[in-house]
Amino acid sequence: MTITITLFDKEGHIRNGQNDYDKVPTVMTKTEEDFAYLSTQELVYEEGDYFKIETDKENSFVVVRLDESLTETVVFIKDKQWLYEIPLNEKRVKARSDVAFKGHKHYISVRYAKDFEINQYMNLSRNSHDLNEESGAYPHAYANVETRNDATFFACNAIDGVYANNSHGAYPYQTWGINQQLDAEVTIDFGRKVAVDMMDVTLRCDFPHDSYWTQATVEFSDGSEEIIHLEKIHTPQNFTFTKRVVEWVKLKDLIQDTDESPFPALAQLDIYGTNCL
């Protein structure tokens, strides 16, 4: 099976890089069997640049790393392509490391996932590459509110694998923030059917600035619900439940502790299970 990765500018033109040794322009596109990468020693990303990852079949699992600052992640591409706008300026500075997508030297890789990577029991909600907007790759997190539409508080921050929760603000303390909205809810869309039976919830714990939720309802796409009770602790809180096959999971009906702070936030939401193939 072939896989293609291409770097485009905002006008839709393929970008060129260059290597120090031969000074020959490197066209930033490649199609290979099973595994493709792009590499260059001389290229600076510009506002509006985006990657296009193309597979030759629908419903593909790929292992991707689009920047050295991001952990390699298994993502699901439903419709043969994934458009990833490189998060620069505010979106990079606030919710990413200050070296993310920066500099001149870059290595980008995408490959089809191995069978054992697809079939294993795993954290199905982890996606270090997720963005605020739907991009064609899953899992994807979205919410009905994100504080001030600020990248520091986007829902995707809750599935990026960064657990730092003893402060608040920019990276590495990005979280899902609710702007004091009492009916706030966040959804993890898996993009396909998965079987889930366990969840870890990690709260932001910048006390006394923060408050926290004492209770939440977990809603599943099959119509079932579970109520969980949370504590004022900085470590991940584990919950198990009867296995069910779902396409999304929602955290809603968040009941806040009655302390003086109006600022609860979610650091990470980890949902465990297996893919249904």
TrEMBL record:
<dbReference type="InterPro" id="IPR008979">
    <property type="entry name" value="Galactose-bd-like_sf"/>
</dbReference>
<protein>
    <submittedName>
        <fullName>Uncharacterized protein</fullName>
    </submittedName>
</protein>
